[in-house]
Amino acid sequence: MEGMGYYVGILLGLILVLRWSLKSVNAWIYETKLEKKKRESLPPGDLGWPFIGNMWSFLRAFKSGDPDSFISAFVHRYGSNGIYKSMMFGSPSIIVTVPEVVRKVLLDDDTYRHGWPNSTIEIAGRKSFIGISYEEHKRLRRLTKTPINGHEALSIYIPYIETNVVSALEKWSNMGRIEFLTELRRLTFKIIMYIFLSSEIEHILEALEKECTILNYGLRAMAINIPGFAYCEALKARGRLATILDRIINERRKKRETPLGITRKDMLDLLLECEDDNGRRLDNEEIIDTLIAYLNAGHESSGHITMWATIFLQSHPEVFKTAKEEQERIVMNMPPGQTGLTLNEYRQMEYLSKVIDETLRVVSFSFMTFREAKKDVEFKGFVLTFKLDP
Known about the structure:
Elements: H1 2-31, H2 36-40, H3 55-63, H4 69-78, E1 83-88, E2 91-96, H5 99-107, E3 112-114, H6 118-124, H7 134-144, H8 150-173, H9 180-197, H10 205-219, H11 230-256, H12 267-273, H13 284-315, H14 317-332, H15 343-347, H16 350-362, E4 371-373, E5 378-379, E6 382-383
Antiparallel strand pairs: 1-2, 3-4, 5-6
């Protein structure tokens, strides 16, 4: 028995040494390339396992139903300074949770730029918002936000939105128990697709939604391009989605060449018309990447925020009561003969707007965002960049 204990002890020791060695590989690869002063000024943390980095614990936290546990583990091990080194999505990274630093990282465009992982860019598109330069990003957002932002745009889509929301509520009431978020995402996807591509694609809505859902699952997955893994399946879904959109774009181009070919302007029409200062218009790849970015971001965020607003209203009866009374009052004051909502009624929804704003404040839909430092940045004695070039 004593001999068995000796060998067990040796085995455990070897396992610990092997574990320490593997956990040191990323640090050896990346940190040894830094100058000594910069290396010693990195914030606390670890770069995780070889290749995987900290992604395993990151994804496990999400699947556990307690996503905050990922950051909590860093706080428990390295203190509550809110600045930690890590290895995320295949790149050495600095995780920042301190409000004042987060604010600077997000708003200081002279020091930081978009820095999304290459794996995410491959799925979203090299010519999407996250794959293009900062100036191109601003220009494209300015050109494409018109049909979906503001009161003028809303006034165009209110009848379609109201009709589909009422229809969905009636359908859900007869279904008994439902998966609320799934149904909300399906509803918001249909509405956003109408805003982007009109009603001509309703016959393939289900197929488009399926591909977008698969694509979304792979956006924050480990970049393992092997069949069966979420990232690989997302790349395939993106290919299928791009093929469908390419066909729609080509058909719309032909339709626009004929007299009276344009009956209304949606997002696709705007993208086909917009041009840069030299008169160059967007090609199909640029349009596809832009549409995919909007489709994924739009229906996912809208569905989740609507779900949380509903949950909060149910959890706070007094708020629900006030919001309901406001809606009833607006309906009672509608002009005789008016059967649906207009922009005038929407503007009267002051209390409900505050409920939505508060939901947006409380709920963080995106667990993290990515920025890349253009140069070395220091905060409280820490270097906040793994920038390796001189």
